[in-house]
Design goal:
Blueprint lengths: L2 H18 L10 E5 L5 E5 L26 H5 L20 H4 L4 E5 L2 E6 L1 H7 L21 H5 L20 H4 L3
Antiparallel strand pairs: 1-2, 3-4
The protein binds heme C (6 copies).
One heme C binds next to strand 3, strand 4 and helix 6.
Length: about 180
């Protein structure tokens, strides 16, 4: 093999892996996944936050994934994301939960029409802890249940029992696309 190939081959092997991991050539990660204990992962998107690194690093965030944990209470007092997401510089952490945490979620199943779980509607009615992590692990696809199990109170059936909310035994079209 020529010297040129010794240089190009490793580059060809590494580049797709780097792109797949969400990195650009400079090593900056576009999307950083911040892990919480009970309510899943929050994706922080660098590309939506401008190129002025000093706005955030190192004063608000150390440049290392999952090394800047803060509670929502602390954010409401101006820490972490709350330094800007205070309703003045950017939308507030005191509302807009689904914008940072998770939007609506689609379940696909070969035996029935797709179900769109309207996360946003439920977040307006309930605190996260009503559902996470006991009833549902906060990870898409991590909570399988059959309709029979739901009718005995599992998953959506914990509330959709025909009294707290419309029931899983009848209103199929309220959840499934037909
Ligand atoms: C609006 C705030 C903000 C701006 C501006 C910003 N960052 Fe970040 N950066 C973050 C946050 C939040 C994290 C995640 C920290 C965590 O996970 O604890 C992060 C993480 C990082 C990491 C660590 C990634 C990892 O996987 O460990 C690097 C590297 C980084 N930023 C580089 C940059 C560079 C380079 C710029 C400028 C081009 C920049 N950041 C601009 C907020 C920002
Ligand atoms: C600007 C983005 C943003 C908004 C808006 C936001 N959060 Fe968060 N939230 C985060 C991030 C980032 C974390 C992870 C913090 C960490 O570990 O450093 C988090 C963590 C949490 C946690 C776990 C930590 C704790 O405080 O118990 C809960 C619960 C939570 N958020 C609920 C909410 C609720 C409820 C709302 C709406 C009232 C909301 N969040 C709005 C970004 C946001
Ligand atoms: C230095 C200020 C600053 C910090 C710190 C900051 N943001 Fe932002 N963020 C902004 C601004 C400004 C916008 C755009 C204005 C708006 O949407 O209100 C924005 C927009 C967003 C959006 C909407 C992006 C879109 O799709 O339009 C999300 C989601 C978000 N930020 C999450 C976060 C999270 C999570 C953190 C903390 C880990 C954070 N931000 C920290 C300033 C900041
Ligand atoms: C009424 C129940 C309910 C409430 C309340 C609720 N969630 Fe969820 N959440 C779900 C369900 C159902 C899923 C999908 C789980 C699956 O696919 O197995 C989910 C998924 C998630 C995911 C994973 C998203 C993904 O793309 O992987 C996150 C993160 C999350 N929820 C955060 C939150 C936060 C933060 C709150 C409060 C602001 C909250 N949830 C309130 C039921 C709820
Ligand atoms: C409250 C919302 C809701 C209602 C109402 C509902 N479903 Fe479902 N259904 C779901 C969800 C969510 C899934 C996917 C569950 C999973 O993948 O973990 C599902 C899965 C299914 C499946 C595949 C799993 C299995 O049990 O075989 C079938 C078939 C199904 N539903 C049929 C029905 C029929 C028929 C009705 C009406 C009698 C109905 N569903 C009412 C939410 C609902
Ligand atoms: C913590 C209780 C709770 C859980 C768990 C829950 N729901 Fe709901 N859901 C409600 C309540 C309460 C309403 C509003 C009352 C009603 O419409 O009967 C509602 C309304 C809905 C609606 C109608 C939304 C609208 O726009 O009017 C859909 C669709 C729905 N739920 C689907 C689901 C699916 C799918 C699951 C499981 C993945 C689920 N829900 C789990 C309590 C819950």
């Amino acid at each position: 093999m020529t010297k040129r190939w010794l240089f190009i081959l490793p580059a060809l092997l590494v580049l797709p892996a780097a792109l797949h991991a969400g990195m650009d050539m400079g090593g900056m990660v576009f999307e950083v996944k911040i892990r919480t204990e009970k309510v899943g992962t929050v994706t922080f998107d660098h590309t939506r936050h401008g190129a002025d690194c000093n706005q955030c690093h190192p004063k608000i965030f150390k440049k290392k994934n999952n090394s800047n944990h803060a509670t929502m209470k602390a954010m409401e007092k101006g820490r972490s994301c709350g330094a800007c997401h205070n309703g003045k510089k950017a939308f507030t952490v005191a509302e807009n939960c689904a914008t940072c945490h998770a939007g609506d979620i689609v379940y696909r199943n070969p035996d029935a029409g797709a179900v769109t779980f309207p996360h946003t509607v439920h977040i307006e009615m309930f605190g996260c802890e009503e559902c996470h992590p006991e009833l549902f692990k906060a990870r898409r696809g991590a909570n399988k249940a059959t309709m029979a199990e739901m009718q005995s109170g599992a998953s959506c059936g914990a509330c959709h029992d025909g009294s707290a909310a419309f029931g899983v035994a009848d209103d199929c079209e309220s959840c499934h696309a037909m």
